[in-house]
# Entry
Amino acid sequence: MSCSKMILTLAAIAASTIATAQVTPGLPVQPLHPPASTQAAQVATTHQPGLTQQEQQAVASLTGPAPQGSVASRPSSIKPPPPTLTVKPGVTTVFGIARSQTNRLVVPFRTPTVKTSSSADISVDPAGVVYVKSDSSEPVSMFIYDKPDPTTAVSVSMVPADIPPVSVHLRVPEYYPRANVAPEVIRQGDRSTAKGWETDQPFTDTVKDLFRSLALGKVPDGYSLGRPDTGSIASARCSMPGLSVEPLQLMTGFNMLVVVSRVTNLQPVTADVVETGCSGDDVIAAAAWPAVRLKPGQATELYVAIRAPAEDPGSESRPVLVKESR
# Structure
């Protein structure tokens, strides 16, 4: 083979190699972002004449790219609520709950009632606990209120997510269970005996003996035992965040009344019962027994002594001797 032919052959081989390299798989010969005209062409293919708008949307949903909102799981930003959550009537409070697991809501209502259109598994414990379980990702919305007093209903919307089971105490500011107009008497006392017991020793010693008798499960001499009314509950009001204070008994003496409440720690940590939170104008003294430091879920009694309402001597009626005539 002559030299010139060999040079021509090598040149042809080199040209063929270069042409092959330009189409070798793996090389970035395709642009990273297709031109807008290509995307427009893809969208245009979904429009088919003779179809209604709803049918065209259905075709687009099947042939086009999946919408961003089609992800089944909730975003990871959903977090469980704090142990105590303040809710107010007329305001919807939104928080996360565990999906496909039982969640617990502790409410301050004596007879909690739930109104909802959700298909979630919801049960109410008469002790003041609402249990919620949902296998869906749809929010669970409901109204919760005390059966005798629907005006205090609170609205919550719970979003199921992949988080641990939730146990939250719903706190309603300035809410106290509606009691009877008049106290319900379980055991009738004697005011004169109560007066003698209260005035037989210095006032400070009387208060100490009063609380000591209650701690021993006794009723002081002459005192009546019943259920608290609206006035006594308001006078013995205590501010104890994170603790559930439930007035259950009323001791009625001559100069003093005592409201006995059950205090429960609803927090996941230890909490102290601070008696100074009972600071109403009519409060004489307050004491907790048998414990002042409560573990999670632990309960104790709280005694709050208040002044008895003063009697108005002018309110007593006198029989009229002579009827007025005109």
Summary: DSSP finds six helices and 17 strands in the chain. The first strand starts at residue 84 and ends at 86. The chain has a mean pLDDT of 78.
